[in-house]
Amino acid sequence: MTESMLPLQGIRVIDFSRVLAGPLCSALLGDLGAEVIKIEPPGGDDYRAIGPFAHGESGLFSAMNRNKQSVVIDLKSEAGRALAQSLCAQADVVVENFRPGVAQRLGIGYETLAALNPALVYASVSGFGQSGPHSHRPAYDIILQAMCGLMDATGSPDGEPTLVGESVSDVVSGIFASWGVLAALLARDRTGKGTHVDVAMFDATLSLTATLVSRYATTGATQGRVGNRHPSSAPFGAYRASDGHFVVAVLNNRLFERLAQAIGALDLLDDARFASDAARCDNESALRDRIEAWSRARTVAQVNAALSEAGIPVAPIQSVRAALESEQARERGLLTDAPTSTGESVRLPRQPVKFSAYPVTRTTRAPRLGEHTSSVLSARLGLAAAEIAALREAGAIGVECENSSIDKERELKMEKDHA
Question: d(Cα 343, Cα 322) in Å, to the nearest integer?
Answer without folding.
Answer: 27
